[in-house]
Amino acid sequence: MDIYTIIFLALAVFIFVRLRSVLGQRTGRERPPYDPYSRDTARPPQPAPDNVVPLPERNTVNPGVPQPVGEDEAPKYRWEGVAPEGSPAAAALDAIARIEPDFDAKHFLSGAKAAYEMIVTAFANGDRRTLKDLLSKEVYDNFAAAITEREGRGETMESRFVAISRADLEQAVAQGATAQLTVRFVSQLISVTRGRDGGVVDGSPDTVADVTDVWTFARELGTRNPNWKLVATEAAQ
């Protein structure tokens, strides 16, 4: 060997020793490279901490507990909350619903309250046109006659509702295609009638009076006209 070969061999041995000291030796106990997409099947399951509550499986149903029923699936009765079960009024409301499936007694009572206020106000104002649309011919004739007499005396009437506290179904009758529903109204009203000179003839402009009326509304079922008309009035006992 020449001097250059000896120098290169010595340099190679030196480099090998340095690399071995830095990189180390394989012992057979090295961990494999980390794969983030593989499951660590070798690691035993660890117990959950005490402050962790395991969530139940999704879409599980407890067979011993009744499940909630959708609103559309719940039984519906036309008389529920309006008339006693098994009463003639309840039977009449069911009969109405058989002819008109969209009929709703609670909705009717809401409309009856609005009609009650409109009719009382229209009568006080002498508004015959509004009354004619809401009253049967017989009732309209009586109301119109009272308005005419009041005007003949030169009197004016003022009525203002404070509240309609109740509107309860008192009776329901369905005969053939004709339905009649009687409602008891309890209201608080300020009403005063003034003479020609403006003096108070009846009532009081400052007093709230409790008023109870029993009115009967009727209409022909199965027709295009959805309006109920007032067919009878009476003062409550």
Structure description:
The chain is an alpha+beta fold and 237 residues long. 32% of the residues lie in helices and 25% in strands. The protein has five helices and five strands; from the N terminus they run H-H-H-H-H-E-E-E-E-E. It has helices spanning 3-23, 88-99, 105-125, 128-134, 137-152; strands at 156-175, 178-194, 200-203, 209-220, 229-235. Strands 1, 2, 3, 4 and 5 form a five-stranded antiparallel sheet that branches. A hairpin with an 8-residue loop joins strand 4 (209-220) and strand 5. Helix 3 (105-125) packs antiparallel against helix 4 and helix 4 packs antiparallel against helix 5 (137-152). The longest helix is centred in the N-terminal third of the chain and has 21 residues, at 3-23. The chain is elongated. Mean pLDDT is 76; it is low at 16-75.
Helix content: 25-40%
Strand content: 25-35%
Name the structural class: alpha+beta
In round numbers, the mean pLDDT is 76
Shape: elongated
Element-by-element helix/strand order: HHHHHEEEEE
Number of helices: 5
First-residue to last-residue Cα separation: 139 Å
Rg on CA atoms, Å: 44 Å
Largest sheet: 5 strands, antiparallel
The strand count comes to: 5
Spans of at least 5 consecutive residues with low confidence: 16-75
